[in-house]
Please model this.
Amino acid sequence: PPDATIQPDLAERLREIGVVQPNPTYSPSSKASLVSSPLQETRHSGPIFPAASNNAVLSALEARRRLAEEAEEEFENLGIAGGQGRRFLYAGMIRDVLVMKERGASDEQIEHRLNLKKGVVSRLGPKGLYRPAGGAVP
Model:
């Protein structure tokens, strides 16, 4: 065997370390009991996670779900009299807005022509901040 001295050294080191306490984890199917130690003053009945309000991933998923619902509702109400205009744009519309801005159209003109909610165009930034890339220009 390659370098037979490694195994006796490893065995000696393991004897020095001795028995270790496992890191407690929660599993509903586990039959092992929790072993208490001086470092573990409280027992938990389940996994410890940050509150949903402090969890960035859960907050992002909730915001995504909420925006998807709002976009779906807006889509369902398109064409209904008294609508306030679109707030959600697809990529092609964003490109059209940028091209129209580059050609000198005002935010108000663009919003009227594309039936957008007031202020949507200004949120895309000032003229010249972005340049549309490739393709036919409307």
Observations:
- The mean pLDDT is 79.
- The radius of gyration is 31 Å.
- Residues 60 and 66 are 10 Å apart (CA to CA).
- The first helix runs from residue 6 to 17.
